[in-house]
Amino acid sequence: MGKLFLGLDSSTQGLSAVVIDLDARKVVYEKSLNFDQALPQFKTKNGVLPNRDPLVKHSPPLLWAAALDLLFAQMKKDKVALGKILAVSGCGQQHGSVYLNEKAGEVLATLDPKKSLVENLDGVFARKTSPIWMDSSTAKECAEIRKKLGGIKFTASRTGSDTFERFTGPQVRKFYKTEPKAYEKTAGIALVSSFMASLLAGKIAPIDFGDGAGTNLMDIRRKNWNHDALKATAPSLAKKLPLLAPSGHVIGPVSAYFVTKYGLNPEALATVWTGDNPASAIGLGLIKSGQAAISLGTSDTFFGTMAECHTDENGEGHVFGSPTGGYLTLICFKNGSLAREKIRELYKISDWKKFGDLVAQTPPGNDGAILLPWFEAEIVPRTVTTGIRRFDLDEKNAAANCRAVFEAQMLSMRLHSQWMQVATEKILVTGGAASNQTLLQILADVMNCRVLRIEVSKSAALGAALQAAHGWLVAADKNPAWDKIVAGFTAPVPGSEILPDKKTARIYDKLLEKYASCESDALDGL
Ligand code: XUL
């Protein structure tokens, strides 16, 4: 048996664990539990508490703690070699915040293994529930903070993102405004990631630069809490926030609670957690500047890496600190497969194979046809007016419409990632539509970049386990290189590489100009 590391992913709907054997380059164990099913007493639906206001989305932090106990008990039952694990790291759903009172530090330091975590933690919260990333009830607070910080461009250039309703700062401001007494009693504010890390370390854990950037409170370049942002958000906030630290940085040995109760090695290291997106980036192998990963899912997500920090002056894309150094961008296009499916339905196309076949019958560039597929309010470009718009595109031509929707989505991705100022050298692609060769060729041609397919299950928990390995090696003074750490864990599907066709790429260079002008005309008209 080689060196073992444990990565945990505390997501919206469940908690996952991945154990890797670093020397054997293998995942040796993985397990997930679903909150609703495993812990029905918390009465969540898809991990979220019911609320009369559809904009409010909270979860109980005790649910996450209870899940940690359950998953460790399961690992013990499954005979995972917990005593051999050298370090533990993790990641959490981003932006969610946990409000602790002045007792929390002491309670964390003296967790009693005869009791459950839930019993131990009873009485440490200044607020019983945690607003999570799905909450969109803070539009007012976003506007207030943005105004104080000087508008979208300055907010983004200082904190990495414009203010967003789900981001922690606006959530903290709302709490301060609506429950000032409880806010005053709050001694510490944690993110989901740092809360979970605190349980494992038995002390208040730092927030890392990846998740810290999801707060609208961290200076994205200096990597410290931004005084102006804190002031714009709520009083005395500096006192309530923990330290910021690099992801995977060693906090200390794991809490005795986990040693006594589950048999973790007393010398195993608890390290700083990150957000699920930064951890996924590691798990997908995005460790160097100039690489990108695109997930073609319900929404399409573009992850990019940058050595230098650039921010999006339109405030549509996010910049987070990357756990592997440099910066990570996240740009979310809401109408991803959502729009592709709508077109499929509209033209009564039975399956994705047929969709791809139809696309293949049409020429790249679609003779200049453009379709704007904003079936749902779009995040990038920002618009709340929904609808489908066609330019030089015959509505009756099913094949041309299938090509047009995907070309538009890829052109939009290229256009709206230009602010990164990075020449992308390779794109890794995952998600449903990634199995369609015709679509991937369009992606390669529009981006003029080679494309490789990856199939990684639990990329976030895997990334967290790799982060634990990195943290342990740094602490052991072994000067680890990230490419050596991820080697073997994050390889693309063999034979999946698609190269861009240079001639077609030039067609898309031209079409991009037309796409951009159609898009700006459409937005102006709204
Ligand atoms: C990112 C975001 C989501 C959550 C999901 O900004 O809000 O991806 O991190 O867990």
Describe the overall structure.
This protein is of the alpha/beta class and 526 residues long. The protein folds into two domains: 4-272, ATPase, nucleotide binding domain (Nucleotidyltransferase, domain 5); 285-459 and 491-526, ATPase, nucleotide binding domain (Nucleotidyltransferase, domain 5, 2-Layer Sandwich). Helices cover 38% and strands 19% of the residues. It binds D-xylulose.
List the helices and strands and how they pair.
Blueprint lengths: L3 E7 L3 E8 L4 E9 H4 L19 E2 L1 H17 L7 E8 L4 E4 L3 H6 L7 H5 L8 E2 L7 H10 L3 H8 L8 H11 L1 H6 L2 E4 H10 L5 E2 H4 L14 H7 L3 H4 L3 E2 L4 E4 L2 H7 L6 E3 L2 E2 H8 L7 E6 L3 E7 L11 E4 L5 E7 L3 H10 L5 H9 L9 E5 L12 E5 L6 H18 L10 E5 L6 H11 L2 E4 L5 H17 L6 H5 L15 H23 L2
Parallel strand pairs: 1-5, 5-12, 5-13, 9-10, 14-20, 20-21
Antiparallel strand pairs: 1-2, 2-3, 4-7, 6-8, 11-12, 14-15, 15-17, 16-17, 18-19
Helix pairs in contact: 5-7, 5-11, 14-19, 15-17, 16-17, 17-18, 17-21, 18-21
This protein binds D-xylulose.
Describe the structure concisely:
The protein is α/β, with parallel strands linked by helices and 526 residues long. It has two domains: 4-272, 2-Layer Sandwich (Nucleotidyltransferase, domain 5), CATH 3.30.420; 285-459 and 491-526, ATPase, nucleotide binding domain (Nucleotidyltransferase, domain 5, 2-Layer Sandwich), CATH 3.30.420.40.
